[in-house]
C-alpha cells in the first residue's frame, strides 16, 4: 500500500472513464490516438484543477520580489550584530516586512501539494504501460493500451534499441520533443522570470543550468521508460510551456528580465 495509491486510483478512474467515453463515441479503443486523447484529457483536467496553486505561487513570487529590497536593507543594518537581542529584533522585523508584502511562511505549499499529483500520474501511466492493473484501469484497458502502437511501435515498448529503424525514430522523436519543450520552457520563460538577485551563487548557478539539465534528464529517461510515458511527457510539457509563457508575458515577477521585457 503506497501513500500515492488514493491519487493514482482517482486518476485511473478518470483515465478509464475517458477511454470508455471515447470508445463510445466511435474511436478505436486500441488506437494510440485514442490513448493520446485520454492522456491529454487527464493532463488538462489535472493541470486545470491545480491552477489555483499556480496562481498562489505566482502571487508569492511577486510578494517575495517586492519584499526582497527591504529584507536586503534589513540584513545590511544588522550585519555583524550577533547578540541575542539584535537577532531577535531582526527576526521580528523580517516577519513584519514579510507580512506587509504578503509573503507567506508556507510559500512552498503549492509545490508540495502538486508534487504528489504529478508523481501519481507519472506512476499511473508507467504502471499501466508495464501491464499492471491500477484501480479502474483493469485488465481490459491495460491490455488495450498494450495493444496500441505508434507506427507499429507499442506504447508499452521501452528504450532506444528496438526492432528496426521505426522504433528508434518513434522513441527518439518523442524524447527529443519532450526534451525540446522542457528546454524552451526553462530557457525562454522560467529563467527570465526568476529573480536571482540575492540568491546564493550555488543556487543561481543551478538555475542557470536548469534548461540543459532538464532536457538531458528527459533524453536519458527516454531510453528506459515506456512510449506511453513519453507521450504523457510531451503533452504535459506542452501545457507547462504554454502556462509558463502566459505567466512570463502577463504576470511576470517584478524586477526580472521578463518584467523588463513587458515594460520595454
TrEMBL record:
Alphabetical UniProt keywords: Membrane, Transmembrane, Transmembrane helix
Subunit structure of this chain's protein: Interacts with the Sec translocase complex via SecD. Specifically interacts with transmembrane segments of nascent integral membrane proteins during membrane integration.
Residues of the Membrane insertase YidC/Oxa/ALB C-terminal domain: 35-248
Family affiliation: Belongs to the OXA1/ALB3/YidC family. Type 1 subfamily.
Name listed for the protein in its UniProt record: Membrane protein insertase YidC
Primary role: Required for the insertion and/or proper folding and/or complex formation of integral membrane proteins into the membrane. Involved in integration of membrane proteins that insert both dependently and independently of the Sec translocase complex, as well as at least some lipoproteins. Aids folding of multispanning membrane proteins.
A Pfam short name: 60KD_IMP
Membrane protein topology class: Multi-pass membrane protein
Organism: Nocardioides baculatus
Family matches, as PANTHER family: CYTOCHROME C OXIDASE ASSEMBLY PROTEIN COX18, MITOCHONDRIAL, OXA1
Subcellular location field: Membrane
NCBIfam families: yidC_oxa1_cterm (TIGR03592)
Transmembrane segments: 33-58, 103-125, 137-157, 169-189, 209-235
